[in-house]
Q: What sequence folds into this?
């Protein structure tokens, strides 16, 4: 019997998990395609492929170095261009998570943004904002790291680092760029395009979430790691199921039909929420986590609508809302043994919510504002009415276009 | 060189296989979406996501306990809510198989069923019918278990436990709920909706089948396990290929064109059939298994049509028919060494066919009948004509709807 | 701690990689579906499923034996029907790569080919042409094998063996079968059908490429193998990203819009190019490899158009062009340690380009020519105008058909 190298098997594990995280990322593409009008199809594909690659370039050049290149509590400083990096699997898996964060971050301004605006904000987000935030929590040198910092934060899977940060960008971008034309007129209709594509995307996200959460441990070969991974899988699924089903009941009480979109949204919200503590909850806690997350989603939706923020894909409610709630919930309910006392963690987790939110706003808000000022952010009015595809990607969708016009014409 | 824990690597293996089984399960969603009318799109997505989660809840609460919680030969009695369960990966993989069985079971009554009817039958099936059936064959305490019972049954991958049981529900549900409106009028046309989606679903099923069959062994780290897994993969693929190609030839002899739907159906049928003995056939036997399976599929189709059973997705022929044939074929052709003599196995496998079929009918038939009686089973006539989406999910599909009307109007 | 068998874990690794290669293969189906007219949908699904299975049969019966059955430097001669084969995982993974090659090979003649013509050429390609070519480079007995032949060729991942060979068939088939009706009239429009499906296919290809490249090593358990695999992943992604982004810039300089199709094509081209040396490039070289590959793609496109070769999916530019450039690039830039001196490799790699190209032409050109002569190659003119589906698969696409007619009518 030849020997088996633990490092190599862990690398294998991490690469496979990384592929599933990319699956998650591409899933988001199909959710976007499914929920937007047919006259922005090419634009959304363009956006999602470019951000995959811009993220890779930014993360490879300096993002990974800022995130995991040792350095200070604030920022890393080694492994630029992965030079000298001892573990390329670690790079790949973290790149894939960064790509998920980027796609979430830029998912709220579809149907009204200039391609060049996407490219710039992808680069800044994936090269600076996200890596530095992830350094704080996930690098052993980070000031929020649970292993050796004085401010240990419980965020195992990324409710805060990935989804809160990404969702905050969504909020900022929506705020700066404004609503779609006629969004707040009474006759506006969400132009739904392709429900099967949205379902495909949501399925891909659910399956990808499993790789996303089990890979967060970076290893599988030691005794007990397999069961820990399985606990994470179970928690993710139970939280998604309980959030989705509870959301379905809540929604059914409010309306006379079963709303499939809302069902999908609350499911993803539950999975996002449970990430922060998926390694330490017992299954029953995850069920509760999912149910509360569903409730929190409805509150967020109400707030978003009340404040007239136009977020076609509900990115803010699903990811920012659940990210915040995930960190708070983990502060209360995650296992205490390793971290030392409830009071401390909940305080630290609340602090992390504030710090991560503020950091993201502090960088991205000026950026979007400047882009708006130099006119690379929002497409002209006539383009938005007819769809970006026609003008920026030379695609005409005769069928789609006509349908759009019918819906928009009344104004 | 650090040590590698065998248990942890097996857990890793089982989680990955489980994800592919979920991939299989979601594949079925897209087959359904692709083969039904556009005015039931939201309903089908709703059905498939809810059954994923209802199944999870039912299986977690008591299904897994009934299936693998030791206990008697008939039913298990430990590990409710996975409490005390020594292996959560085992839970996850078996949950995924249960989800496949559920989706097969409820696949035959699309386009004419109330949402609430789905939810109830999913729960009963995933919480009682399937777990108890799987206990008999796959738990070491089960009375059909090949390892230590006196009635060893050869069903390695689930031709019987998953597909025969699921397919039986499909038959029962079709029988109770009846055909779609105008199904047996001469002008009825199968309202095909989206062939690429059906192809996507079928591709997902084929890839998922690989995880489904290799995971059935629950382990990979011992010498020889890798080759056994590879043999299963080869057998699944060869059976699918031979069944599909033979079905194509048979069908081409009957008609003047190449029927893609029939080709896909026979392919899946071949894979279902070979499951029962995929671990013990030599590749040549699998080719034969596939070809006979294809023949059996045509007989089933003929019987179904002759008896005027309306099964839009051919679930009964593909899964019930092939499940039965798979158990019979395994009774004759699977390796004899471990089980002790051909005569015994074929007898036991035939008995298993009868027992599994009767058990499923005994529970599900009264359930469907009661649901029909209290009117939560079939949607009203006008809803069926216009599509469930409009009434139960508040989705209008202007294009799809118009097309439907054209096809239905003549009556 | 129980022992873990290295062989079994490698088998596990190879099966998982093989599934991802199948994912790649099915991805090509959706690219085809997305980029062709709706009136050939069933035909394309038919083509892709049959070639999956015809390839399996041919490869199982004798293809694998010719490729890896020891034998002479030219052809192997053992393991027919996998009998006596010591490693079935090796068979599965190589079958999956063969299926990718087949699907590439027959991807250029869609919309105008008889089903029977596909079947015959799939069989010949997967049973003879590809296996023998792969024997030369990848079997230790092959005369181009880097391990022990006198003509070591650097083709780690298959730029030459899989993509150059497949792409050559595409060129030959286009040349023999000729352009689509009216292709070179000024009013011809590429009948684009479904951009989201094309994006789905491209995403599947990108994810599948990761399994495709890491599996090429056949093992993972030895120390260092995990990092080698990660290097391959990084190189594939960087080459794809740099090729895609550089292609986007090049294309944007030529036109006033962002061309999503071209972006996807150059991305895949970059990944194809880097395959040949993905195990030995440092990441910076991969970025350069991608960028040059993008440039090479534009030259190929110009050549193809200039020579009036009608290749609806750009198979020749993407796969043949990048395959050639990949072997040349690897000849110059791959690590020299193991192979002994730059001059030698570049010479051998150039020789391999010529030999692989000539071999494929020598077998496939006569075959296509004979098929054309006996009229099983091209569908009749009226069928092509109305779409193959209607005549060969009994599928009518009322919507799609009408759209087609509008585009074709002017002539």
A:
């Amino acid at each position: 019997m030849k020997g088996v190298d633990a490092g190599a098997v862990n690398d294998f594990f991490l690469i496979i998990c990384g592929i599933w995280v990319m699956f998650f990322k591409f899933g988001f593409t199909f959710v976007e395609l499914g929920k937007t009008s047919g006259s922005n199809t090419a634009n959304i594909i363009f956006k999602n492929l470019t951000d995959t690659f811009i993220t890779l370039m930014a993360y490879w050049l300096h993002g990974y170095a800022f995130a995991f290149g040792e350095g200070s509590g604030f920022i890393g400083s080694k492994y630029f261009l992965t030079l000298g990096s001892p573990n390329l699997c670690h790079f790949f898996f973290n790149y894939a998570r960064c790509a998920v964060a980027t796609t979430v971050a830029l998912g709220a301004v579809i149907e009204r943004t200039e391609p060049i605006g996407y490219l710039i904000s992808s680069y800044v987000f994936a090269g600076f904002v996200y890596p530095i935030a992830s350094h704080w929590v996930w690098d052993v040198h980070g000031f929020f790291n649970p292993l050796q910092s004085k401010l240990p934060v419980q965020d195992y899977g990324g409710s805060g680092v990935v989804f809160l940060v990404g969702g905050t960008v969504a909020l900022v971008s929506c705020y700066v760029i404004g609503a779609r034309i006629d969004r707040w007129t009474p006759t506006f209709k969400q132009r739904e395009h392709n429900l099967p594509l949205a379902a495909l995307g949501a399925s891909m996200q659910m399956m990808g979430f499993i790789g996303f959460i089990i890979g967060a441990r970076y290893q599988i070969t030691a005794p007990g790691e397999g069961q820990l991974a399985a606990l994470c899988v179970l928690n993710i699924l139970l939280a998604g199921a309980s959030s989705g089903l509870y959301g379905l009941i809540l929604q059914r009480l409010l309306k006379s039909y079963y709303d499939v979109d809302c069902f999908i949204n609350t499911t993803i919200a539950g999975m996002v929420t449970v990430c922060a503590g998926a390694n330490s909850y017992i299954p029953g806690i995850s069920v509760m986590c999912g149910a509360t997350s569903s409730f929190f989603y409805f509150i967020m939706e109400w707030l978003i609508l009340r404040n007239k923020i136009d977020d076609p894909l509900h990115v803010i409610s699903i990811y920012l809302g659940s990210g915040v709630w995930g960190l708070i919930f983990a502060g209360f309910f995650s296992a205490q043994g390793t971290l030392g006392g409830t009071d401390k963690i909940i305080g630290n987790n609340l602090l992390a919510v504030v710090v991560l939110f503020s950091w993201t706003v502090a960088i991205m808000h000026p950026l979007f504002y400047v882009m708006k000022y130099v006119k690379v952010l929002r497409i002209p009015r006539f383009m938005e009415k007819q769809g970006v595809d026609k003008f920026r990607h030379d695609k005409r969708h005769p069928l789609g276009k006509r349908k759009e016009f019918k819906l928009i014409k009344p104004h």
